[in-house]
Design brief:
The protein contains 20 helices and no strands. It starts with a helix and ends with a helix. The longest helix has 28 residues. It is globular, with a radius of gyration of 22 Å. Helix content is about 70%, strand content about 0%.
Length: about 425
C-alpha cells in the first residue's frame, strides 16, 4: 500500500481500530517508560514514543486483516525479544552511578570547541553552496554529491559529527554566565538548525541540554511546562515556512508525520510485498554501508551502487509507489530489515542488536573522566543505542559520526600535546 491507499481505504474507515492498536503498542512499552526514562527531556522518551507509533501500524494491520500470520508473528517475536533483552541487560547499569566530580581541562576544551565550531560553520556553508538551503529546497534531502563516500562525502558528514560538541559547550558557557562568548555559537546553532528544514531540529538542542546536565553536572534538570509546549509546536513553524501555506494544513501534515513513523509497515506487509524482495547482496554489508561507505573509494571497492547503497525502506517504497524516494525513504527498523534478508534466523541478530543497544546506552558510561568532550562521547554512544530502535541504517550512520568525532578529537589532542613541547 502507498500512503494514499492506506489513508483512504484503511485508516479513515477504521480509525477507531487504529487508536486501539496505538494503545496496545504504547502499553507494551510501559515498563520501559516507567523504569528507564529519567526525564521528560530524556531522548529515550521520544524514541520509545516513536517506536510505539510505528508499532501501532502492524497491530492495526492485524486488526483489519491486512497482514499475514507469519509476518505479524515475526514482528511480535522480534519486538518482544528485543525489548526483553534490552530491559534485562540494562538493569545492572541503570540508573547510571556517578563517580567523581567534573574534570575541567579548560584550555584544551576551549580549543576543541573552537575547532568544532569552525568545522560546523564551514561544512554547513559548503553544503549550502552545493545543495542550497534545505528549508527552501523542494526536497530538503537533495544531494548533488555522493554523501556516503569519498572526500566530499566526509566533508558533508563532518557537520553532524561536530555539532553536538558545539551544542554542549555552548550550554556550558551559558550555564557559567559567559553570555557574550555564547552569543555567536547560539546564533549559529539556531540559524543552521532552522535552515536544515528538519521538523524536529529543536530535539537536538533539548537532548544536548539533557546530556550536558546528566553527564557533566551529574543531575537531571527540571523543565518548565512552557518550554515543553514551545518545543512541541516548533515543528509546525518549520513546516509552514518550509512551504505549506497555513496553520491548518501544517497541523494536518504534522499529524501525518507522526502516523507515518510506521509507513514502512503499510508498504511492506499488505499482500506480503516484503516477501517479493529478492536480494543477491549481503545483508550485513548493505545495512552497514553508512559506516564503511565513506572509505570504499579509498580501498578501491567497486560494486553496483544502485543495489548496495540503498535501504530496504527505499526498496519497499519504490515497489508500492512506482518511484524511488529521493525525498527521503521510510525508516528501516530491524523488524523489517532483518526479515527481508534472513527471515526467522535473524532473531539471533535481534538479540545481539538489543545487547549492543543497551551497552551503548548504559554500560561503561562511568569509564571516562568527566570532561566536556567525554560528555559528548557519552551522548554519541547513547544516540547510537537509541537509533537502533527505529532504523538500522541510522544506527550505523551514527556509529560513523562517533568514529569521525573520535578521529577529530584524537588528532587535535595529538597536535596540542606535541606542539606544546
Amino acid at each position: 500500500m502507498d500512503a494514499y491507499s492506506f489513508l483512504e481505504q484503511l485508516f479513515f474507515p477504521n480509525i477507531r481500530l487504529y487508536f486501539v492498536a496505538l494503545f496496545v503498542s504504547q502499553l507494551f512499552l510501559l515498563p520501559l517508560y516507567l523504569k528507564r526514562v529519567r526525564s521528560v527531556i530524556d531522548p529515550l522518551l521520544l524514541s520509545l514514543f516513536f517506536v510505539g507509533l510505528a508499532n501501532a501500524i502492524p497491530v492495526f494491520l492485524l486488526l483489519t486483516k491486512n497482514v499475514s500470520t507469519e509476518l505479524f508473528s515475526f514482528f511480535a517475536c522480534s519486538q518482544i525479544l528485543f525489548w526483553t533483552v534490552f530491559y534485562m541487560s540494562s538493569a545492572k547499569s541503570f540508573p547510571i552511578k556517578k563517580k567523581g566530580g567534573k574534570v575541567a581541562y579548560r584550555r584544551f576544551d576551549d580549543l576543541f570547541f573552537k575547532v568544532c565550531l569552525a568545522l560546523y560553520v564551514l561544512t554547513t556553508l559548503y553544503s549550502y553552496a552545493i545543495n542550497g538551503i534545505p528549508l527552501f529546497n523542494e526536497n530538503r534531502f537533495a544531494q548533488n554529491i555522493d554523501n556516503s563516500s569519498g572526500i566530499l562525502g566526509l566533508l558533508g558528514r563532518l557537520s553532524s559529527s561536530v555539532s553536538l560538541m558545539v551544542l554542549i559547550y555552548t550550554i556550558y558557557l551559558f550555564k557559567n554566565k559567559q553570555y557574550k562568548k555564547s552569543l555567536l555559537p547560539i546564533g549559529v546553532i539556531l540559524i543552521f538548525s532552522f535552515f536544515s528544514g528538519a521538523k524536529g531540529f529543536i530535539l537536538n538542542i533539548v537532548s544536548a541540554v539533557f546530556f550536558y546536565f546528566l553527564y557533566y553536572e551529574n543531575y537531571i534538570p527540571k523543565i518548565k511546562k512552557i518550554y515543553i509546549v514551545m518545543g512541541i509546536f516548533t515543528p509546525l513553524l518549520t513546516i509552514i515556512i518550509g512551504g505549506l501555506s497555513d496553520l491548518g494544513s501544517a497541523f494536518n501534515y504534522f499529524i501525518y508525520r507522526l502516523l507515518a513513523g510506521g509507513d514502512i509497515y503499510w508498504n511492506a506487509y499488505p499482500n506480503d510485498i516484503i516477501n517479493s524482495l529478492d536480494y543477491n547482496r549481503s545483508g550485513l554489508l548493505n545495512m552497514s554501508y553508512m559506516l564503511w561507505g565513506p572509505f570504499r573509494h579509498l580501498f578501491g571497492l567497486e560494486f553496483d551502487e544502485a543495489q548496495m547503497m540503498t535501504t530496504v525502506g527505499a526498496d519497499l517504497f519504490e515497489i508500492t509507489t512506482g518511484f524511488y524516494p529521493s525525498g527521503g525513504a521510510p525508516n528501516s527498523p530491524f523488524t523489517v530489515t532483518f526479515w527481508a534478508y534472513y527471515g526467522w534466523y535473524s532473531l539471533i541478530g535481534v538479540a545481539i542488536l538489543a545487547l549492543g543497544s543497551s551497552s551503548l546506552c548504559y554500560h561503561g558510561q562511568n569509564s571516562m573522566p568527566n570532561t566536556l568532550p567525554n560528555t559528548c562521547f557519552k551522548a554519541f554512544l547513547f544516540r547510537c543505542g537509541t537509533s537502533a530502535f527505529l532504523d538500522i541504517y541510522l544506527f550505523f550512520n551514527n556509529l560513523f559520526s562517533l568514529f569521525l568525532f573520535y578521529c577529530i578529537y584524537k588528532s587535535l589532542k595529538f597536535l596540542s600535546v606535541n606542539l606544546s613541547k
